[in-house]
Amino acid sequence: MSSFTNKKLFIAIIISLSSITANAQSGNLFTDTMHLSLDTAENIFLRNNLLLLAQRYNVDAQKALIIQAKLFPNPNLSLSRGPLIPITDNLSNYPYSNFFKNTENAATLSQLILLAGKRNKQIKIAEANAQLSEFQLFDLIRTLKYTLRSDFFNIYYLQQSAKVYDKEIQSLQKVVTAFNQQQGKGYIAEKEVVRIKAQLYSLQSEYNDLINQINDTESELRLVLQVKNVYLSPDVSDTKVIALNPLQYPLTTFIDTAYKSRTDLQIAKANTNISKLTYDYQKALAVPDLTASLSWDKQGSYARNLTSAGVAMDLPFFNKNQGNIKSAKFMIDYNLATQKSTEATVEEQIFRAVQKTLDNDKLYKNIDPKFTNDFDRLLNEVFINYEKRNIGLLDFLDFYDSYKQNTLQINSIKYNRVQSFEDINFYTGTNFFN
After folding, report:
1. Full domain range(s) for residue 416
2. Whole-Å CA distances, 347 to 139, 334, 353, 409, 434
3. Would the pTM count as exceeding 0.85?
């Protein structure tokens, strides 16, 4: 490689590193912004999420075990030939025998026969485990969807709050710039300049904390969506959000739907079913299996070319599988208790979610729709009046602080209201509110 080429490569590396450093210092690690609706986000999630892919492989693995459970035991073929060590016996009909001359050959074909319906019970257990893996997949989807939707709305309302900080910081920055230009002329008291700067630095610190919270939530959402190196900008329809009505469905509808759709409840029922099937299988194992055989012996018996048939079975004198049967019985009781606990949890979660939704919806509807618009209009007027010295510093800062606190509180109320509807969706296992 020529020195000129090396020089070009070196310069390109320096430029690239400089660009990366500049982006990092300015906070612009990501150059692209992904605007996405809730439906788009869910479609990306279902298509890309690696945890779902892993769980789908687990479902396929459990279904493959059904195929294995349906297979019959292989027959067993036994062959023998001898003598391996040559024998010399003058009293025998064959005074001299070795592995190739005057040999003894024997063969046995045996087949294990499972009794007490063990094979069918194994198939049922395999089918139940495959169904359980599907419920686990659906429960993973339900849980990750809840995370996705919660993060989606959380990011949106946090970004709305960030706009407030950005607006106030820009306004105060203008004031500080104007003060710096008039510094030393005696028009502005020094304590007033210090007070404005202190307020600006406080806002910048709060803004930085809020941005970190947004970035943490975006990071979690990017993992759920399996997207990289982009800012996420949720698109939320305020009209749809406002139209959400917690009284649209009765409480009994939520509970009945949850009993049918809650995948964690289905998992609890599936575990109870598996424990019952396992108990039946362990009782079947107490019955010994039968081995049928067909044998041929060339000259090792009282007659040459002897053909015989036989059966073999363990005698259950000592081991009757007592411990496994007893353990399986206790597992039924354990899973039944767990299932009842899950059912009680489902009902209480739904009741509390509906109660919280009603409270949050009532709080939101008590807010005067014109209140925020009035604040936004007055913010600019207060700034102009402070510049003209029509109002004092304390009134100016007090209004700015009230504006910030009001906007943050309203965004928090909006998010809590939406989140409570998402809680109902999650606890019922159905998107009643979408």
Report:
1. 115-157+213-286+321-434
2. 18, 21, 10, 31, 22
3. no
